[in-house]
Amino acid sequence: MSAEAWRLAPRPASLAAVLLALVAPSATAAPQPIPEGPGVETLPAFVGAPATPRPVFATEPPRHRFMAPNGKSNIHVDAWQTDRNRWFGPLGRGTTRNSSFQSADCASHTFDRRGRLITVCVGLQGPRLVMFDPDTLDELARFQMPPRQLQAGGNPNPFTNFSGGGYFYLDQNDRSVVPTTTRHVWVVAEAGDSGFTLQRDYDLSGAVPFGDAIISALPDWSGRIWFASVDGVVGTVDPSSGAVRSRALGEPISNSFTVDERGAVYVVTDRAMYRFRAASDGTPATVWRKLYENDGQKKSGQTQAGSGTTPSVTPSYVAITDNADPVNVVVYRRRDGGFVCKAPVFGQGQSSTDNSLIATDRSLVAENNHGYTGPAATEQGKSTVGGVERVDIRAGGRCRKVWHSDERAPSSVPKLSLANGLVYAYTKEPRSDGQDAWYLTAIDFHSGRTVFKRLAGEGLGFNNNYAPVTLASDGDAYVGVLGGLVRLADAVSPAQSPLRLRLALRYRRGSRGCARGAIRATVGGRDREALRAADFSLGGRRVARDRRPPFGTRIAAARLRDGRRYAVRANVRSADGRRTRLTRRVRACAAARAPHFTG
Predict the structure, then answer these.
(1) Does domain 3-37+64-495 have CATH number 2.60.120.290?
(2) Rounded to whole angstroms, how far apart are CA atoms 464 and 106?
């Protein structure tokens, strides 16, 4: 079917037939854009105003040495599955869009060391591993995975069956580790500048029986590969020998899982939240198991009758949503599974989520997917109930709702930029004219206010169908959609904007403003929450390094010589990698008579 036939195909009738008739275009130097309806030019391209960054501080998850760097390794950003990036997303400043027509949903996005985008594009005919140029979306390489098994995991619905490639990760050597539809895990390496090669094939069919399917695979901190299946098999693979150890929980699993630096693996089933560790032979052993509230109903917008979230880890906690009515954000202690708090989100009878929470140290953001039953639910101008809410974990172990947004994000995996304080969702408002307009929408993390919306596209091809928003390190945003892949980018990368910081010095003042005694140096300014490290020096000699707010140091009087002038400097690094040097000059009072420090 041609792109023109795609555009003219009747909607919403026979969506699966329309998609199945499409044959993905072969790799070309110039990508073909995803087709849109004839009325797209009448839609507002931009709503709102460009954003002013308001950074958010959160502890950076440890770098996993068996995965690509944080932000580049998997669908949920890092090993803690926080769905937040330390770098910028678009600020709405001359934001442009381009797309690549793939006739498949190119959902999970990773980035290799050369910045190329690596994704698995999942269509009705099966998944394929694809390499894109991150700016032009030129297709650079393609590797065909085993074909779709529509009955795998007992779920013949191609729009809600995410096994066999929906989740994968990029390892520390730029190899894609992908569960296949045939109950294997493939390790696919890059071959030169424009190719892939199968480097390792782990056969898990002895642990995952016929009719089941692998939903996800991730490495623990020792490098052992863990996997989970739709029917509830959890297991490990020794990457050297290929030895497989597993156990059947008897509880369905519908989402990915989470690993931490202590060797823990967190898995949520349709009944309970687990923390596992590997026994000496690699067999998964339960550290703790906690039942969560579940009314047993598969709610509109869910793919199963259970939690719709991958567990999100913070320095102290692990969080999910349950399956009550309305659903609750539920928080447990990492170490022992102790219940911390919960808070209901959205309205009774209109509450469900099938996407993970955004997590900072003490804040969680949830998105309402109630009403999304598949692509037909958002065709012909229709949309879903909507809602995005932030819940904070307060001192004393209490969960409190901070704000509610009415934005309608039918099924996106939203992301937070710590550098600018914006939550990015993929939204669609109902329209009486029958047009299907999809927008990248920026919501203020602090207040819940919608800052701006940028049109991503119109029509069936721009429905993301549970795919995420992904933020690249240069500030661009990507969304996997049924037609392929969309990129939205500011005219000038926000990562090039200067840090708004100042260096403040506090000391007892003598005559003519000289310093008497010790000096306190502190980094402040509007972007102070974006900082991650500050190195302080006095007269060219380093005196301290600070990695936590408020980023300051005390310079002892013993370091100052009577009457001498000094340059106090702070070399600072922000969470998104920007660096700058701040300098203030000060003169020590001659009357201080402080001994000269020679060390």
Answers:
(1) no
(2) 9
Structure tokens at 336: 């022992």
- Asked if 169 and 216 touch (Cβ cutoff 8 Å), the reply is no
Closest to 183 measured CA to CA, from 203, 159, 197: 203
Alpha-carbon span 460 to 40, nearest angstrom? 13
Residue 240 CB partners (closer than 8 Å, separation 6+): none
Cis amide leading into 12 (omega within 30): yes
Neighbour count for residue 279 (Cβ, 10 Å): 11
Q: How far apart are the first and last CA of the chain?
A: 76
Phi–psi pair at 592, nearest 5 degrees: -70, -30
Between β-strands 258-259 and 244-248, what pairing exists: parallel, antiparallel or unpaired?
unpaired
Percent of the chain with pLDDT over 70: 91
Give the start-to-end residue ranges of the domains of the chain: 3-37+64-495, 498-592
pLDDT for the residue numbered 494: 81
> Which comes out higher in pLDDT, residue 556 or 38?
556
Kindly write down the DSSP assignment for every residue of 169-185, as one continuous string.
EE-TTS-EEEE-TTSEE
Q: What is the pLDDT of residue 162?
A: 62
CA pair distance 315, 473, nearest whole angstrom: 23
pLDDT tens for 138-171 read: 999 999 999 877 655 556 666 666 666 789 999 9
User: 498-592: same fold as 3-37+64-495?
Assistant: no
Quick one: fold of 498-592?
Immunoglobulin-like (2.60.40)
Confidence band (pLDDT; 50, 70, 90) for 531? confident
Phi-psi region of 84 (alpha: psi -120 to 50; beta: other; left: phi over 0): beta
Amino acid type, 483: G
- Give me the sheet containing 388-394, strands edge to edge: 358-359, 363-367, 388-394, 398-405
Q: Hey, which bits of 14-167 come out as E strands?
A: 46-48, 84-85, 96-101, 105-111, 117-123, 126-132, 139-144
> Is 21 a residue whose pLDDT tops 50?
no
Neighbours of 508 (CB within 10 A): 13
Asked whether 480 and 104 are in contact (CB, 8 A), the reply is: no
